[in-house]
């Protein structure tokens, strides 16, 4: 592999930073300690910083030897998840009910290593903005940073992101043009019936049966209304109703998620869900309230930037190490908001199968959002080398 040698030499030092962050996870917009660690490291390497965008966000600005009017943004996320860690190794979470189960500690470490190198080797023209973003896990930290002036205070021509991907071999990357990850949307349906004794159902209106019928009907949107070549998911994940075995309740509530790769599919699903909910509840003599919340758009890679990233990756891991036909995921990513504002590309870096984990890891697999997950520190020089070579080559390329 074609790695940046100084970064390889720093691996143990950067790994220690990563493990410190892992041991002290912070949730969305609470990343005060993590942001302090990032800011202190950047400033120690002579990188001026902006703080406060997205509440706890940190942006470092690295100017090259000359300015050619071009600027690039490299983004990492910093927040953890509200879940209990099952690992017991030395760097396991010290904060109960909080865990870096998605590798944002590793993303932060890789970008820190790249920033250190770029600050010490300013043999490029233009400007690199290193973006350390809060609140990716469901709280729209990317959008908050944009709303707080990310792209006006730190002008850039393109922006790039990267996420570790368990199950993909270490030393490999995945990237495709177009949709890379799905949109994230939630819904809530409240059905109002009429309570009665369960032994005398004819005296009431049963919202539980209405919920059961509605749950089945909603699935026909995917199987009968949507173009089968336009992927989408509609999952009902919660149905809550009742408190006793012999009582027909007054209310039933249903919640769930919708994922799509296109706005066209999302518009159709929301429209049909509205129609089926209201007409179906009427057929069961219930009243219905329906709420649909669009949270994250689909993460859509721009073709030109994707092709550029793929070529950079091939110079690092070889053509065989870049999967340009990887299957996209219906998981979501708020980097999507940045790609709506600027051209760019989001890649996956293989995290392996979990064999890297120290003794003391939990029994579960090393998958994202799992209590036994841990980021693979062998990715640090690889991911950081990609950031460095991407920035250098992109700034040197023709606009």
In short:
One of its GO terms (molecular function) is metal ion binding. InterPro entries: Amidohydrolase (IPR017439), Bact_exopeptidase_dim_dom (IPR036264), Peptidase_M20 (IPR002933), Peptidase_M20_dimer (IPR011650). By secondary structure, the protein is of the alpha/beta class.
Write the layout of secondary structure elements.
Blueprint: H1 5-9, H2 11-23, H3 32-44, E1 49-51, E2 58-63, E3 66-77, H4 104-120, E4 125-133, H5 141-147, H6 150-153, E5 158-166, E6 173-174, E7 178-181, E8 184-192, E9 196-197, H7 207-225, E10 232-241, E11 247-248, E12 251-260, H8 263-283, E13 287-296, E14 299-301, H9 303-317, E15 322-323, H10 335-341, E16 344-352, H11 379-396
Parallel strand pairs: 3-4, 3-5, 5-16, 6-15
Antiparallel strand pairs: 1-2, 2-4, 6-16, 7-14, 8-12, 8-13, 9-11, 10-12
Organism: Paralcaligenes ureilyticus
InterPro entries: Amidohydrolase, Bact_exopeptidase_dim_dom, Peptidase_M20, Peptidase_M20_dimer
Keywords: Hydrolase, Manganese, Metal-binding
| Name of the CATH superfamily of the largest domain | Zn peptidases
Strand coverage percent: 25-35%
Globally, the shape reads: elongated
**Largest β sheet strand count, sense and barrel closure:** 8 strands, mixed
| Strand count | 16
Task: Quote the average pLDDT.
Answer: 97
In what order do the strands lie side by side in the largest sheet? 1-2-4-3-5-16-6-15
Contiguous helical run count: 11
Terminal-residue CA separation? 28 Å
The string of secondary-structure elements, in order, is HHHEEEHEHHEEEEEHEEEHEEHEHEH
Low-confidence stretches: none
Count of discrete domains: 2
CATH architecture of the largest domain: 3-Layer(aba) Sandwich
CATH class membership of the largest domain? Alpha Beta
Question: Which class do the helix and strand fractions yield?
Answer: alpha/beta
């Amino acid at each position: 592999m074609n790695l940046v040698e100084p970064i390889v030499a720093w691996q143990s030092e950067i790994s220690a930073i990563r493990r410190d962050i892992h041991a002290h996870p912070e949730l969305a917009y609470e990343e005060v300690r993590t942001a302090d660690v990032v800011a202190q490291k950047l400033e120690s390497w002579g990188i001026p910083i902006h703080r406060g965008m997205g509440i706890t966000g940190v942006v470092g600005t690295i100017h090259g030897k000359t300015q050619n009017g071009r600027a690039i943004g490299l983004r990492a996320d910093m927040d953890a998840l509200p879940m209990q860690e099952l690992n017991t190794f030395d760097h396991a979470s010290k904060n109960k009910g909080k865990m870096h189960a998605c590798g944002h500690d590793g993303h932060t470490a890789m970008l820190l290593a790249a920033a250190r190198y770029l600050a010490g080797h300013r043999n490029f023209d233009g400007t690199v903005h290193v973006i350390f973003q809060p609140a990716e896990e469901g709280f729209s930290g990317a959008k908050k940073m944009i709303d707080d002036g990310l792209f006006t205070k730190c002008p850039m021509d393109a922006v790039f992101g990267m996420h570790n991907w368990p199950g993909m071999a270490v030393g490999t990357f995945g990237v495709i043009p177009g949709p890379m990850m799905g949109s994230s949307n939630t819904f809530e349906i409240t059905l109002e019936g009429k309570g009665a004794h369960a032994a005398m159902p004819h005296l009431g209106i049963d919202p539980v049966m209405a919920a059961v019928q509605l749950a089945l009907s909603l699935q026909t949107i995917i199987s009968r209304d949507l173009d089968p070549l336009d992927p989408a998911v509609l999952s009902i994940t919660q149905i809550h109703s009742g408190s006793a075995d012999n009582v027909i309740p007054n209310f039933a509530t249903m919640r769930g998620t919708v994922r799509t790769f296109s706005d066209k599919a999302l518009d159709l699903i929301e429209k049909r869900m509205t129609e089926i909910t209201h007409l179906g509840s009427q057929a069961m003599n219930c009243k219905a309230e329906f709420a649909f919340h669009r949270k994250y758009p689909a993460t859509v890679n721009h073709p030109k930037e994707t092709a550029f990233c793929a070529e950079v990756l091939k110079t690092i891991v070889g053509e065989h190490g870049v999967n340009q036909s990887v299957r996209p995921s219906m998981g979501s990513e708020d980097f999507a908001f940045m790609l709506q504002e600027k051209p760019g590309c989001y890649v996956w870096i293989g995290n392996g199968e979990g064999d890297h984990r120290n003794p003391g890891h939990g029994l579960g697999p090393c998958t994202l959002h799992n209590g036994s997950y841990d980021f693979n520190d062998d990715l640090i020089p690889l991911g950081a080398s990609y950031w460095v070579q991407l920035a250098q080559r992109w700034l040197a390329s023709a606009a």
